[in-house]
Design brief:
This protein is mainly alpha-helical. The protein is 72% helix and 0% strand.
Length: 94
């Protein structure tokens, strides 16, 4: 039987070249998410907290996918398909 650590190491080795280093990905994703949560105009009546939960989650997931495109293999088509899929789910509800 394979240990959990070995499985995790195998997954990380397989996905690393596709998604890029986790730390780099996390930095980019967190910066994108921070930008979305901080509206630059204090007079703007739009706030992150006022968005519906599915819209906030969609935007977070898209931020993750964007960071993977930036830090990893930009030609990995699944990232683009996922971005479209997340947006479509919310668009269908709206």
């Amino acid at each position: 039987m394979t240990s959990d650590k070995t499985v995790v190491e195998q997954i990380t080795a397989q996905r690393g070249p596709v998604y890029g280093p986790f730390l780099h990905n996390a930095i980019v994703a967190q910066n994108i998410k921070a930008a979305m949560r901080n509206v630059p105009d204090p007079d703007n009546d739009r706030r992150w907290e006022d968005l519906p939960p599915d819209v906030r989650e969609m935007l977070d997931l898209i931020a993750l996918k964007i960071s993977r495109i930036v830090t990893g293999d930009h030609s990995y088509i699944d990232n683009y398909d996922d971005i479209g899929g997340y947006a479509k789910i919310v668009a269908d509800r709206i």
